[in-house]
Amino acid sequence: MTKDIEWRVAPEPIEYGAALAEMEAHVAALTAGTAPERIWLLEHPPVYTAGTSATDASELVDTTRFPVFRTGRGGRYTYHGPGQRIGYLMMDLRDRKRDVRGYVHAVEGWVIAALAELGIEAFRAEGRIGIWTLDQAGQEAKIGAIGVRIRQWVTMHGFAVNLSPNLNDFNGIVPCGIAEFPVTSAEALGKPVTPGQFDSALRATFSPFLEALS
To answer: Is the pTM of this model over 0.90?
Structure first.
């Protein structure tokens, strides 16, 4: 079982269904010990996804705006689209901490550290999964979503961070089931970030993330 970690960056947006199929195939190979761990950074065309906790149909406000995919990750409804950086983390926890909550906490910490590299102060909010910051009005707002799946202690899915998406596209859902807080983006905060800049920040803060898994 290799411990090499492959970083892969998609140069063009990838349809959600195709990305999901490829991720599942890679995780199967990783579980079998025939493929390396992978960090896959990409973007999707507009899509709504429903996690395993997406059981309240009223949280899908607009059923016709974008395609809707049921997926095996944890969480409720979320949006993916242009201007959002997706990170799919295919990590082998069998020789690391077998701790689901600890893994989610580590992913959150990694994203928070990467945003700090770019001058964006983000934080965890007790009782609310994901990545939070203060918007231009000083209100807590969600800048990143976390949704993972762990099967045989090998991970799938990961995070989605709003760099410069059209925030109106979130109006078709109740994002992650939380109606009382808005979503925001780096662009809306007046701190524009390119995908390449964010990817570099992720690499710069990757070692502490790995250490948190050990």
So the answer is: yes
